[in-house]
Write a structure and sequence with these properties.
Layout lengths: L12 H19 L1 H8 L5 H22 L1 H13 L1 H22 L5 H8 L2 H12 L6 H20 L12 H27 L5 H13 L8 H8 L3 H28 L2 H5 L5 H13 L5 H18 L7
Helix pairs in contact: 1-12, 1-14, 2-6, 2-12, 3-4, 3-5, 3-10, 3-12, 5-9, 5-10, 6-9, 6-14, 7-9, 8-15, 10-12
Length: about 325
């Protein structure tokens, strides 16, 4: 079991660097999720896809929570102390985020979906100030805004995602707005989770929210769901395994482990890596063009992230 830094303290420089590298790895994993989702949406509706992704993970998490004494004890404690918070996290981080994202990807491209998830740092910045009373240094705020500007360059002129925003049709706009609800849900998930991490470990919070968030989608476990699974090709199974194992079990743990030791706004700012990574892998796997504007915008994103992460590990 992974060791966690003492709650209420910042990690040392080596530990902080390790966590930031894990977050970069996380967004290498998550940036490929959008393509996997688009592929699986060809054979499943949003309810079925959320169930297919999270049901195996939920079973694993439930067995672990019941079988491991420490997790069982922590689960009982946090369920007594913060049941509303856990339900809110399950309904936003698992149910809401993924359901809205999957509906949106019915009509918009993976790059566009990756772009829209980057609204999360701005939502988190506001939420952390209001609800977490987090003191956000000017340098971190500036870094987030520079990264957002770099993201606009990537999208508007780098031939990634939605292209020129002014060219979105009314039909696409509806799905853009639906998809934008996903990062709003993720912001609630992050802020509530940050508070709960003061009481228990990242593993316990992650496992409980996955189990709780999966429950509403059991309603989709009918014959059409089984028929959709039966129609899977090997590539569909690989895409689902990527979503279930890497994006969910590994990804959610890294996210909450980072929240245990870093400010919420710093962790959320890594979301800006999604569109550049999605475009890079699109170039590698699907031969999509990377332009000079893309390189310039990506450089701005990385510089903004550098500013946003500065002084994260310095003791107060």
């Amino acid at each position: 079991m992974a060791a966690y830094p003492p709650r209420g303290r910042n990690p040392g420089p080596a530990s902080g660097l390790k966590m930031r590298l894990l977050l970069v790895l996380l967004f290498v994993i998550w940036s490929n999720a959008f393509t996997a989702i688009k592929y699986l949406r060809e054979v499943m509706d949003p309810m079925e896809l959320v169930l297919a992704r999270f049901l195996p993970a939920a079973v694993f998490c439930l067995v672990s929570l019941l079988a491991v004494p420490r997790l069982r004890k922590e689960s009982a404690m946090i369920l007594r102390q913060a049941p509303v918070g856990l339900v809110a996290m399950g309904l936003t981080g698992v149910a809401g985020y993924n359901f809205f994202l999957y509906i949106g990807q019915s009509e918009i491209k993976p790059g566009a979906a990756a772009l829209l998830t980057t609204l999360s740092p701005l939502f988190t910045l506001l939420g952390a100030i209001v609800f977490l009373r987090e003191r956000v240094p000017f340098r971190r705020t500036l870094g987030i805004l520079i990264a957002l500007a770099g993201l606009y360059v990537v999208v508007a002129w780098g031939k990634v995602g939605l292209g020129r925003v002014t060219g979105i049709s009314h039909a696409e706009l509806r799905y853009v707005l639906i998809t934008a609800l996903a990062p709003l849900c993720w912001t609630v998930y992050t802020i509530v989770g940050k508070n709960l991490l003061a009481k228990t470990s990242a593993v316990t919070v992650t496992y409980l929210t996955i189990v709780i968030g999966t429950l509403p989608f059991l309603a989709a476990a009918g014959r059409p769901f089984l028929d959709a699974l039966a129609s899977f090709t090997p590539m569909h199974w690989i895409a689902l395994a990527h979503l279930t194992v890497l994006c969910t079990l590994v990804g959610f743990w890294i996210w909450f482990a980072a929240l245990e030791s870093m400010p919420a706004t710093s962790v959320a700012s890594f979301v800006y890596l999604n569109p550049p990574f999605a475009a890079l892998f699109g170039s590698l796997f699907f031969h999509e063009t990377i332009t000079g504007f893309f390189v310039f915008g990506a450089a701005l994103v990385l510089f903004g992230l550098y500013l946003a992460q500065s002084n994260v590990t310095r003791p107060h």
